Amino acid sequence: MTKTAIVTGSTSGIGLGIARALAAGGANVMLNGLGESSDGEELRRSLVAETGAEIALCAADLSRVDEIERLVADTRLRFGQVDIIVNNAGVQTVAPIEDFPVERYDLIIALNMSAAWHLIRLTFAEMKARGWGRIVNVASAHALVASPFKSAYVMSKHAVNGLTKTVALEGAEFGVTANAICPGYVMTPLVEKQVPETAKARGLTEEQVIRDVLLAAQPTRQFVGVDQIGALAVFLCSDAAAQITGTAIPIDGGWTAH
Ligand code: NAD
Fold this sequence. Notes:
single chain, alpha/beta, 8 helices, 7 strands
């Protein structure tokens, strides 16, 4: 039977790469992104044309619990059930902790961390009842190691790993796996935005940030591709990955091997 996946933050970057890969693999996909209207609808149509999958869009703001509930309700209404969730929506702010804007801290914790907990809370029982489910949390290399000036982000991503392990244990006897994907740097709008912020925080030029901060972290000296992360997510959602659970899998060009 066709599986249904919710991929949060899938109108851009990594989430879009995962949504595209799951749809190409035959899953129904509920897209989600903040504030998209006509652009989101255009994207949805182009993914349908490209993959032939059933694809819907819900522009819920996942920093709010009532909106997370709406995302789940809309998915059930459209597709009947939820088999796969990919907690991917996330934001970043780069600033020294003493200057860190408190409203950005609150947003990072709500979106990167709490939204994942709520979406799992709202869909776990039905996955357990059917004896099959896949939870893929897009964490980060920053779930395993830290960098300066990213206190809220590093905190939120380490927490996602703890959540992943706990949920893996709770789902283990019910055919429900939970794993975290830990990407290194991927050139998406999230990273493009932090180049000038990091330049300011570290007193560097933007070129120096890309060469000496971002790619310096990755021994391959290359950015990770969204298609590579999509392929890993599809594998984790396959039956071949049924015994992989509770893991944090780096896809980071060797960064966390240091
Ligand atoms: P992106 O900025 O390209 O995309 C973010 C997505 O989240 C968009 O679809 C946006 O609409 C959505 N979003 C933002 N705020 C939202 C909200 N309040 N409610 C619902 N959706 C919202 O970012 P990306 O680089 O693709 O990052 C995706 C995930 O991957 C994040 O969790 C990020 O921390 C993680 N990550 C990114 C990198 C990287 O180098 N780009 C590395 C490691 C981990």
